[in-house]
């Protein structure tokens, strides 16, 4: 890759079964190839996590970094998830109706699931790897 991508980067926990399923879901439905993905366990993901105040060894949230590798705007918790779905287009953007629920009510639910994700959904022994056709979108 000669020039770093400037689009939004989704930082996800590649050891988490739920998070990996979400990453696969995004790759399969992001027809415009808007998003790039970076595992929090990888070099790029670890660096971006630290830069935006999250411990990559104990990730507490999904992050969406806008503006590529140099981006400063970060979405986290339920705002990050809703932003992803809104960006994927119809019918997924209908999830925006959840914005009617204030973040102060959405985020505690998100954090409860995030804290218990391994217990609820499982943890992989190794990081999930994207199928070859999506490798150009993985950092």
Compact description:
This protein is α+β, with helices and mostly antiparallel strands and 139 residues long.
Verbal overview:
This protein is α+β, with helices and mostly antiparallel strands. The protein has one domain (9-137). The chain contains five helices and four strands; from the N terminus they run E-H-E-H-E-E-H-H-H. A four-stranded mixed beta sheet has the order 2-1-3-4, with helices on both faces. Helix 1 links the parallel strand 1 (9-12) and strand 2 (36-39). The longest helix is centred in the first third of the chain and has 13 residues, at 17-29. The chain is globular, with a radius of gyration of 14 Å. It starts with 8 loop residues before the first strand and ends in an 18-residue tail after the last helix.
- How are strands sequenced across the largest beta sheet? 2-1-3-4
| H/E topology pattern | EHEHEEHHH
Distance separating the two termini: 10 Å
How would a textbook summarize the main sheet? 4 strands, mixed
- Helix fraction, binned, reads 25-40%
Rounded to an integer in angstroms, the radius of gyration calculated over CA atoms is: 14 Å
The number of distinct β-strands equals 4
Estimated share of beta-strand residues: 5-15%
The number of distinct helices, counting runs of at least 4 residues, comes to 5
